[in-house]
Amino acid sequence: MSLAEKICLSAAFLFFMTGLITGIWKYRHIAKSEDASSPVYVDIAHRSSLLYSFAALLLAAFSSYSIWRAPINVAAAVSALAFFALAIGTYVLHGLLQDTDNQLRRPHRLGGRLLPPWLTGLFMVLLIAAEVGGALVLGAGAMLGIWNG
After folding, report:
1. 10 Å Cβ neighbour count for 24?
2. Using alpha carbons only, how large is the chain's radius of gyration in Å?
3. How many domains does the chain have?
4. How far apart are CA 122 and CA 80, in angstroms?
5. What pTM was estimated for this model as a whole?
6. What is the DSSP letter of 99?
7. What DSSP string runs through 31-86?
8. CB 91, CB 44: distance < 8 Å
9. E strands, the chain, where?
10. What is the pLDDT of residues 13-69, one digit of tens each?
11. How many Å apart are CA 18 and CA 46, to the nearest integer?
């Protein structure tokens, strides 16, 4: 098994466990709430963790068939997975702080603090580049591997 596959499968496990644990957190809010709901970002943290766990499995599969050299596959996997993790972390943080129901609403807040206006935009651009770019590199490598192999 390649290093990229090991990294992706490890991330899938961590994201899946985060999804299960945030599911308990979500349930506790639902059980205590009069309207059987949880804070928006508790729900988002739960669902996104589960979805990212399966996305990490997909990246592992792409890695296994990719024709690119190991360092390229590892860099692509790590870039996508790191931003998956950062996104989940952001959702968990907003869930803990219960400071917003929309992290992209201006002005951008983190707890009681206002974030610089450019920070969220920069983070989103980097997230898009890393997630799409990493998946594209691994996916293209896999497509070349299975169709030309």
Report:
1. 9
2. 17
3. 1
4. 16
5. 0.95
6. -
7. HH-TTS---HHHHHHHHHHHHHHHHHHHHHHHHHH--S-HHHHHHHHHHHHHHHHH
8. yes
9. 109-110, 113-114
10. 999 999 999 999 999 999 999 999 999 999 999 999 999 999 999 999 999 999 999
11. 7
